[in-house]
Amino acid sequence: MKKKQPTKQPIFEGAEISWFAPLCDGDDDFLGHRNPEFKSSWENTSAIVRAADSFGFRNILCPSSYQVGQDTLTFASAIAPSTKQINLLTAIRCGEVHPPMLARAIATLDHILKGRLTINIISSDLPGTVLPSSERYARSREVIEILKQAWMQNEINFQGKYYNIKLPAAPIKPYQQNGGPLLYFGGYSPDGVALCAEHCDVYLMWPETEDKLQGLMSTMKDKAADFGRTVQFGLRVHVIVRETEEEAKAYAQYLISNLDLEKGNEIKDRAQDAKSLGVSRQSDLRESADEKYFVESNLWTGIGLARSGCGAAIVGNPDQVYDKIQRYIKMGIRSFILSGYPHKKEAAYFAELVLPRLKTISLPEVLGRIPMETPNTPLEKGPRT
Fold first, then answer.
1. In whole angstroms, what is the distance from residue 362 CA to residue 176 CA?
2. 311 vs 237: CA distance, rounded Å
């Protein structure tokens, strides 16, 4: 079979610098320590989103989990009118909602946000069910194909293993008419890589050493080229920045100073993705670190002692954190989803010490989904003042 020619890779400067909304009860002052003050609630999480918006972050991930936390689409719809310029990266679990109804819900939210909506595709098991990885990704592929038909065609006409649907698509047109909201996706298995390469726009990775990130990106580029496509690359990583390196490293140790490792394992294991290949890679990363949990310069893996999923943080002074992000940008990473503990405080540190030095972009604007707007204006005063 003749290999398709990949679409031309867009050339642009800067990166999408995003923050994280802890809908899944993942905020705390100490890792592994449940402080009711930081419990996932509308009051706490909406305050973080509004703060990230005012600080100048370009997007914010609203994650999804059954065991703990809030419903993602409901939260995103409620917070949307309170935001001004930030995009919402709203997670959806494929199979949870009948695809035409999901397409309508996403289109409605996209209109509320006037195009400031992006979607994080999740293929985890649905609560109370277990499917082989290949079947979960096959179901996700059907959901995505139905969403795209609903957004881009006059009719949904789909026959598959999981869904057989024939419906008019008139009620389901999103605000973003050039393909609908961007699809962000994270997955490491061959089936997951193939799904992203064929249908998604941004491939999200968890922290790895730089050489391993390059390997993941090379694999994805080759696979996307098989489908005549290109994808953008994103990195989901925590961050701890302080005026000095010593302060940043001291705060990293402070975060785990009250950690009971048995309790930390309990927190990690309760997550839906606790046994995934991605989580396994994060464990391998931590095991290769030194006695202080650093695996390479300014990349600290102590976060993963008490949480599933993304398990490492960029740690250092403003120059070190900025330089590390620039290294990633030079590798070709154009989207960063950052977070820290507690989330609102760490967003303020990053916004004051690093964010004004970075050229930020909105990927939906750069990739032509919505009209380009004036870049975010840095705050005149630091957010911690």
1. 14
2. 8
CATH number of the structural domain spanning residue 135: 3.20.20.30
Does residue 7 lie within any of the structural domains?
no
Strand duo 299-300 + 202-205: pairing: unpaired
For residue 215, the tally of other CB atoms under 10 A from its CB is 12
Which range marks the domain in which residue 30 is found? 16-238+332-366
Residue 327: the pLDDT is: 98
Q: How far is CA 312 from the centre of its chain?
A: 14
Predicted structure pTM score: 0.90
Burial of 290 (0-12, 13-18, 19+ CB in 10 A): exposed
Among 85, 16, 21, 84, CA closest to 358:
16
Please give the Cα distance from 100 to 110 (Å, whole number).
Answer: 15
Beta-bridge mates of residue 4: none
**125: helix, strand or coil:** coil
In a domain, 212, yes or no: yes
Residue 70, in any domain of the structure: yes
Q: Is the pLDDT of residue 10 over 90?
A: no
Structure tokens at 337: 């989803």
CA angle 207, 213, 218 (to 5 degrees): 150
Cα dihedral 142, 144, 147, 151 in deg (nearest 10): -130
User: How many domains is the chain partitioned into structurally?
Assistant: 1
Give pLDDT, residue 382.
47
Run of H or E residues at 196: helix 190-199
pLDDT interval class at 374 (50, 70, 90): very low
Report the run of H or E that residue 92 belongs to, with start and end: strand 87-93
pLDDT tens digits for 221-263? 999 999 999 999 999 999 999 999 999 999 999 999 988 765 5
The CA distance from 34 to 135, in Å, is 35
Residues in the chain: 385
- Work out the angle between the directed axes of helices 210-226 and 318-331 (0-180°, nearest 10): 30
Query: How far is the C-alpha of 156 from the C-alpha of 335, rounded, in Å?
Result: 32
Residue 353 covered by a domain: yes
What tokens does 142 get? 């059907």
